[in-house]
Amino acid sequence: KRVGILISGRGSNMVSLAQAAQAPDFPAEIALVLSNVPGAGGLERAREFGIATATVDHRAFNKDREAFERAMDEVLRVNQIEFVVLAGFMRIMTSWFVRRWEGRMINIHPSLLPLFKGTHTHRQALEAGMTEHGCSVHFVVPELDAGPVIAQAKVPVLPGDDEESLATRVLAQEHTLYPRALAEVASGRVALVDGVIARR
Ligand code: GRF
């Protein structure tokens, strides 16, 4: 499967996926890294792997979200992308894009969904007094952070944790969880069928 990874920043999850995809038996090829932010750090990291990169600057579409998404979609089509992976992609997608890619687009969210949707998830977990936290890989559906969950990884919340220490612990889990989850979906072992997770 030709996979396109969408990023907005440093791309640490993209790097983990690119490393995993170098294994000869990995069921997906990272064929493109696309950023909505020109000069995002992850673009240089992708080039180091020899992965094609592209930038579609959302600011160039003066708030017309769908026009921005159509431009991204054209780049994905030109690169014959079959599956989209959101990795630190910080734009909310409209249902136009999500419907086109439903069942072929996944995201990683730094919480144990359905807990703590949205942003500042580590702060939310600390403020809620959680003793455990983690990350979730899910299919993307029009409702934000609400898609069926493919896989999760848990970490303890330790006394003295602050947002940074907790985020660091969660991110380390993301880097092992995401490649495993992508392999499950790209191999067809896991799929989204009629809105629910189907496992073979
Ligand atoms: C991280 O907070 C991660 O939890 C979330 O997006 C942010 C940046 O990730 N997925 P990355 O380093 O750009 O992959």
Automatic annotation (TrEMBL):
The record marks D145 as: Raises pKa of active site His. GO terms for biological process: 'de novo' IMP biosynthetic process. Keywords: Purine biosynthesis, Transferase. Belongs to the GART family. This is Phosphoribosylglycinamide formyltransferase. It comes from Bosea lathyri. Gene3D superfamilies: Formyl transferase, N-terminal domain (3.40.50.170). GO terms for molecular function: phosphoribosylglycinamide formyltransferase activity. N(1)-(5-phospho-beta-D-ribosyl)glycinamide binds at G11, S12, N13. Its EC number is 2.1.2.2. Catalyzes the transfer of a formyl group from 10-formyltetrahydrofolate to 5-phospho-ribosyl-glycinamide (GAR), producing 5-phospho-ribosyl-N-formylglycinamide (FGAR) and tetrahydrofolate. Pathway: Purine metabolism; IMP biosynthesis via de novo pathway; N(2)-formyl-N(1)-(5-phospho-D-ribosyl)glycinamide from N(1)-(5-phospho-D-ribosyl)glycinamide (10-formyl THF route): step 1/1. It is an enzyme of class 2 (transferase). The active site is at H109 (proton donor). Residues 1-182 form the Formyl transferase N-terminal domain.
